[in-house]
Design goal:
Chain A has 3 helices and no strands. With about 130 residues, chain A is mainly α. In chain A, helix 1 runs antiparallel to helix 2 and helix 1 runs parallel beside helix 3. The N and C termini of chain A lie far apart (about 55 Å). Chain B is elongated, with a radius of gyration of 34 Å. The chains are: A mainly alpha (about 130), B alpha+beta (about 475).
């Protein structure tokens, strides 16, 4: 994780955030646990990097800056894509899990997918 | 105990089973890159001992197990369906952006700006013939800009209608291919991996065109439902759909284009069932967005509302003003004309009165009190009056709201299409991963992935809030 003090100004923080976001986009094209975990870490980096931008801007006072504005807007559209992606992925995985649950444990009295018991099987002999 | 013949028969069957297993492996290697192909796993099962004949005792029988996971296939189809819809929206909405351009250089805002500048200049010297001519010239530019926009929107409406017809044809072709598959599979003794891959590929293509549900039937056949309700393919029967003009949709709105409806083979309207795939995207633009802009169905259209609001407001001021500065006051002439018989055709018919001359423009407001340039001043400030003349908004503000509607639709389509591309990749990748694993393994993987995504999603919400604050801190 890069430290806020490593960045000279708001633009550098923003560039670092954008670079992290690009890596997140690449990682999320594969549905692996490792990629998802690394994405979450990188997103926390983005959060900190943007916090640096906010702190620097607060200190220097708000003034028009086309470059920073464009960078923030670009990140906003990427965040919108990510939010849509996570929402769609959640819907897809929930549906998928429901299908697995019903195949594995059937339905509850209320017609919902039976809860899945993912515990280690114990075999007792003798 | 079996006799010699039954032992030999059993051994022979075992050899056949191993040969079949080798064939399956060979098939997997050959088709590794075929779209929609799922590995066939050869399984050797011991044959039941038939006590009366002794046949098959101790032998093995090869049963090919298709590793395709039904939900994985469904998930891919659903994601493809959404991707198809948003990608189609991107394609169809792109030309609209040239009509509703946010920049001030686009035809309508630019022409409106020129018109109000000409009113302003004319108000400074109401009898100046050059300024009067400039007003008429600027008004002609406004008329041309509206007419051009109406023509462009009409062309987009026509091409969208053509695209709907093409998509419906493709859906019917895919349905025919699935029907053919059902016919063939019914005559085969056991599943054919190549045919299954072909079917999967057709189903994925169909998913990108419309929201379908696939039900597995007897003997390997499939039933395909459109929107979960209308049977498109049922066994060996195919029910074609068609796109038709919904004549009733534009009743009472003369000149408006009728909406397009999708009908099943019995003539039932199933438009409401189409909620995914390229067809849903096309129908949304053709039946909702375009009518809200240029008219159609029961809508007059924002561009027509704007054209009428502008023409009526300007004409009203001129007709109440006077061309003379002393009594008897002479009422001015209307500057704009349009076809009022067709509310959906107003923008397309907006023009400057062919008989008007500069001297017929009324600059004076007869009051009381009489103001020699009162009408011209009113016209110069017409766009900034509050509340504005078009639904409470000024003309440029109203046009900006139409632009914003199109811009938001385009942005949303872009965001959704990008996210959907990643979701399709995810679904396809998961489809590959779950082939052959146990249900428990599959569930564990899904739960872990879901909780990881959930954690990442929470951070995204925080980032979004921070970005909102940053936008406020960096003004344009």
């Amino acid at each position: 994780m890069e430290n806020a003090t490593e960045y000279g100004d708001a633009r550098q923080c923003l560039d670092a955030a954008r670079a992290s976001m690009r890596r997140v986009k690449r990682l999320l094209s594969q549905p692996s646990l490792e990629a998802a975990d690394e994405s979450a870490t990188l997103l926390r980096d983005v959060e900190i990097q943007l916090g640096c931008v906010a702190a620097i801007l607060r200190q220097s006072g708000s003034r028009p800056d086309i470059q920073i504005r464009a960078g923030v807007e670009e990140l906003q559209s990427e965040v919108a894509v990510l939010a849509t992606f996570f929402s769609g992925a959640d819907k897809m995985l929930t549906g998928w899990l429901d299908a697995v649950r019903t195949r594995r444990g059937g339905y509850t009295d209320r017609g919902q997918a039976a809860p899945l018991m993912l515990v280690r099987k114990l075999s007792v002999e003798g | 105990m079996g006799n010699l013949f039954s032992v030999l028969n059993s051994a022979s069957q075992s050899l056949q089973a191993f040969e079949q297993a080798i064939d399956v492996t060979q098939n997997n290697v050959t088709n590794a890159n075929s779209p929609g192909y799922a590995d066939q796993v050869p399984q050797m099962l011991s044959q039941d001992f038939e006590s009366d004949t002794g046949v098959n005792a101790g032998g093995v029988k090869e049963v090919t197990q298709d590793t395709r996971n039904t939900y994985a296939d469904t998930a891919v189809q659903q994601q493809l369906s959404l991707q198809g819809m948003y990608q189609q929206l991107q394609t169809t909405l792109a030309p609209l952006q040239s009509v509703f351009d946010v920049s001030s250089n686009s035809a309508i805002p630019s022409a409106l700006n020129q018109l109000f500048q000409s009113f302003s200049a004319w108000s400074s010297q109401p009898t100046n013939t050059n300024y009067q001519a400039a007003v008429i010239d600027a008004a002609q530019q406004v008329g041309s800009a509206f007419q051009q926009a109406a023509v462009q929107l009409g062309q987009i409406q026509t091409s969208t209608t053509d695209d709907i017809q093409t998509t419906v044809t493709q859906i019917n072709q895919d349905a025919a291919a699935i029907q053919s598959y059902n016919q063939q599979v019914g005559q085969m003794p056991q599943p054919d991996a190549g045919m299954s891959a072909q079917l999967e590929s057709t189903l994925e293509n169909l998913s990108s065109l419309a929201n379908i549900q696939v039900l597995q039937g007897n003997g390997g056949t499939v039933t395909v439902l459109l929107g979960g309700q209308t049977a498109l393919v049922e066994g060996t029967q195919v029910n074609t759909i068609q796109a038709v003009n919904n004549i009733a949709s534009n009743a009472g709105n003369p000149g408006a284009a009728p909406n397009i409806s999708i009908e099943d083979s019995n003539g039932n309207d199933i438009t409401g069932q189409i909620t995914g795939g390229g067809l849903a995207g096309l129908l949304s633009v053709r039946n909702n967005l375009l009518p809200s802009l240029i008219g159609g169905g029961q809508q007059v259209g924002g561009l027509n509302t704007l054209a009428q609001g502008l023409a009526d407001s300007v004409n009203n001021v001129l007709e109440q003003g006077s061309t003379t500065s002393t009594p008897p006051y002479q009422a001015g002439s209307a500057l704009f004309t349009y076809n009022s018989a067709s509310p959906s055709g107003i923008a397309g018919s907006l023009a400057v009165s062919s008989t008007i001359t500069g001297s017929q423009l009324a600059a004076a407001d007869v009051g009381p009190p009489f103001v020699a340039n009162g009408a011209a001043l009113t016209l110069a400030g017409l766009d900034s009056t509050s509340p504005g003349p078009v639904d409470g908004q000024g003309f440029t503000q109203y046009f900006a709201s139409l632009t914003s509607t199109v811009g938001n639709a385009v942005n949303n389509a872009n965001t959704q299409a990008t996210a959907q591309s990643q979701l399709v990749a995810q679904a396809q990748s998961l489809q590959q991963q779950v082939s052959g694993v146990s249900l428990d393994e599959e569930a564990i993987r899904l739960v872990q992935l879901q909780s990881s995504y959930d954690a990442a999603s929470k951070v995204v919400t925080v980032i979004d809030d921070t970005l909102q604050s940053l936008i406020a801190m960096v003004p344009t």
